[in-house]
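TA notes. Do not distribute before section.
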Amino acid sequence: MANSMAEQLQQDMVCEGLLECVHGLKQLDKECFRVMVRSDQPLTIDEVAEKVDRERSTAYRSIQRLLQSGFIQKEQINYDQGGYYHVYRPTDPSQIASDMQRMLNDWYAKMGQLIQEFEDKYEQADDGAATIEG
């Protein structure tokens, strides 16, 4: 991944790149997400692990990152005789897009503030230097 914003803007990016860029998700996280999107029904961690050919604990960590980023949702399924297990399904894409748009808007506002602070700080420095020289 590119280091500077200028490098990122020059890259060819696909929509899945947003998962990495906005949320810092890893390749395995994206694979787990794709598996869940392609499934007709919610999946257990064991099912996801099998489909991505990874250990259960590795798949679990990816699923936790996806949960924290809001890309998937967890549901509890109760057994009739007691006990339960969890299944995971993707969040509605329009909800994910809306959340990413909100994050982008917040980031844009913050960058605008920082740029203004930069301008104010160094404009004052130029004014002080001109006064000293004059």
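Switch to the second chain here.
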Amino acid sequence: MEDAIISNEELLQELSDAIVSCKKDAVLAAVEKAKGVIEPSEIIEKGLAAGMNEVGTLFERGKLFLPHVMMAADAMTSGVESLKDLMPEGAESKMGVIVNGTVEGDVHDIGKSIVSTMLQSAGFEVHDIGRDVPVKNFIDKAKEVSANMVGLSALMTTTLQGQKDVIELLKEEGMRDGVKVMIGGAPATQAWADKIGADCYAENASEAVAKAKELLL
């Protein structure tokens, strides 16, 4: 009987907790329970993504470590996959195509990976090209997939310049008008975004999703 009166809030909390537990089985079980009760987009945004945000916070505080974060991201991807059949047909393609990566010289991966997962969960088509990515690779990939946006992560002050370099090359290639640029990473700021001509700066994964929707929808 108790299951019948479980509230949406409790279901969403269960989804979030399952992500924080980093256990795929727990995540899939929570998703199954929420299916048919809560909209798929809400399961992703207010349940799974909320949990992933919490994982990111715990990682930053040293309470969780890289393997945990990767397991949580993997569990979230599986949870999202299991909802694919319930998503409106063609919803993804309308949202926009994003190339996301960490700039050359920077091997930090985790924040960028969380952002990619969250953007994907929100319905964007995301091409995560990894870390330590040469400037030209961002441009080549953007051309290849007809990207509407490029996400540039930099976690060190010494690699921030790479964000500027990508924007400069987009201009040289005549692509800048058709491609929005979002930057992020610990040393990045709104002032830096303004200075290098980026379209937006996102402090965390949730903000990245909100800004991408703002710019692309």
